[in-house]
From TrEMBL, chains A, B:
Keywords: DNA-binding, Transcription, Transcription regulation
Protein name: TetR/AcrR family transcriptional regulator
Source superkingdom: Bacteria
Domain HTH tetR-type: 11-71
Gene3D superfamilies linked to this entry: Tetracycline Repressor, domain 2 (1.10.357.10)
Family annotation (PROSITE patterns): HTH_TETR_2
Any one Pfam family match given in the protein's UniProt record, by short name: TetR_C_46
Lineage, top ranks: Bacteria, Bacillati, Actinomycetota, Actinomycetes, Kitasatosporales
DNA-binding region residue numbers: 34-53
Length: 214, 214
C-alpha cells in the first residue's frame, strides 16, 4: 500500500484483488474467507478492496463473472469452427479441460463455492452453464446438418438433450480431475469424452440410433 | 396429535416426518425451512419431531440418507444383471431417470439443497455419488470383459473415467428434466444417454476408439 500502491492503475489493482479473492474463496470457502485475508493476499489495504469492489458479495459476484467469462471464452476460442464436426467437438472439449486444469481455483469458485452459497450466486453459474449448453447445442445441430441426417432427423429436443448430457459429462470429468482422485490430463479427459460421445453421436447422425429392442 | 398420534408406531411416524421434511426442504431450502412447518406438514407436534430426530441438522441428514439410499436401491434393482451389456446399462438408466422423475423433492434435496448447504451434507451426497459411479464402473468393466476387448484393452483408468462421464451426463439430464425447462420422460432421457454413450462404448469395446488424427 501507500505511495507505491497508488501508482498502480485501478483496472490492474482490481484484477489483483480478484486473483487474490478467487484463490482465497477457493481455499477457504465463501463464508470463511475474510476481506482481511483477501486484502492481504492482494497486497492492498482492506479499505481499498471495499472502495473498488464495495462488499464481499459484490467481490464474490465479480469473481464468478470473471471466471465464467474466462471459461466461456476459452471454449469458444478453442473450437476449430472450420473443421469437421468431430474436430470441432474435440477442440472444444480440449479447450474446456485445459482451461479448467489451468484454473482450478476458478473451477472451485464456480462449481463448488458459488453453488454452495446459493442464490443469487448459483443463478450466475446456472446462466453460464446455460450459455455453454447452448453453444454445444449449436455445434451438435450444425454437425447433424452437415451429416445431412434427413431420415431420422435429429429432433431439436434430442439435440438439446445431447448437449446437456455432454456438458454434464464434461463437468463430471473436470470435477474428478480437480478433486485429486485421478491424475488425468485435459487431453485424456477430452479423448475419453470423444470416445464416449462422438462415436455415439456419429451413429445417431448416420440414422443408426440405439434401440432397447435390438 | 394427542391420543390418536400415540398409536402410530415410531417407525411410521418417522417416515411421515421425513416425507414432510423432504417436501419442505425441497420447496423452501434448508435454511428457510422451519421445524414448525415440518411438524405441521407431518401432522405432529414440534417436540415430537425433536424427540425422534433430535435437531434440524439431524433431520436433514436423515432426509439425505433416506433419499440417497432410495436412489441407489432403485438403480441397483432396475439393472437386469443377466442381460447383455447394453441392456444392463439401459435398464439402470431407466431406473435412475424414473426414480428421479417420481421423486423430484428427493432429487432437489440431494442435488440442490444438500450441496448448497455445504459440509457435512455435501459429503453425504459425494459419498452416494461415489457409490453410484463405482456401480456404473463395475457394469462397464463387466461389459468390456464380455466384449473380450483384449487388444486395445480398456484400461481401468479409462473405465473409471467413462463411469464418471456417464454419471455426470445422467445427472445433467435429470436436473434438466426436473428444472422444468424440458418435459422429457425418464424413457426419453435413458434413450438419449444410450444413443450418446452406448454406441460410443460399443465402438470402444470393439477396439475402435476415436482418435483426433482420423
Amino acid at each position: 500500500m501507500g505511495a507505491q500502491g497508488k501508482r498502480v492503475p485501478r483496472a490492474v489493482r482490481e484484477q489483483q484483488m480478484l486473483d487474490a479473492a478467487v484463490a482465497t474463496f477457493a481455499r477457504r470457502g465463501y463464508r470463511a474467507a475474510s476481506m482481511d485475508e483477501i486484502a492481504e493476499a492482494a497486497g492492498v489495504s482492506k479499505p481499498l478492496v471495499y472502495l473498488y469492489l464495495h462488499s464481499k458479495d459484490d467481490l464474490f459476484t465479480a469473481c464468478i463473472r470473471r471466471e465464467a467469462a474466462a471459461l466461456k471464452a476459452a471454449v469458444r476460442a478453442a473450437v476449430e469452427l472450420d473443421g469437421p464436426a468431430d474436430r470441432q467437438l474435440w477442440s472444444g472439449l480440449l479447450g474446456f479441460f485445459e482451461h479448467t486444469a489451468a484454473h482450478p481455483d476458478g473451477w472451485t469458485v464456480l462449481y463448488s463455492q458459488a453453488r454452495t452459497v446459493g442464490e443469487p450466486f448459483a443463478d450466475e453459474v446456472a446462466a453460464m452453464r446455460a450459455e455453454i449448453v447452448e453453444f454445444v447445442r449449436g455445434l451438435i445441430a450444425a454437425a447433424a446438418r452437415d451429416a445431412d441426417c434427413d431420415d431420422g432427423d435429429l429432433a431439436e429436443r434430442e439435440v438439446a438433450a445431447l448437449a446437456h448430457a455432454l456438458v454434464g459429462a464434461a463437468e463430471s470429468l473436470a470435477g474428478r480431475a480437480l478433486g485429486g482422485t485421478a491424475a488425468s490430463s485435459g487431453r485424456e479427459n477430452a479423448a475419453t469424452l470423444m470416445n464416449f460421445a462422438w462415436s455415439g453421436l456419429a451413429n445417431l447422425m448416420d440414422g443408426r440410433p440405439w434401440t432397447p429392442s435390438r
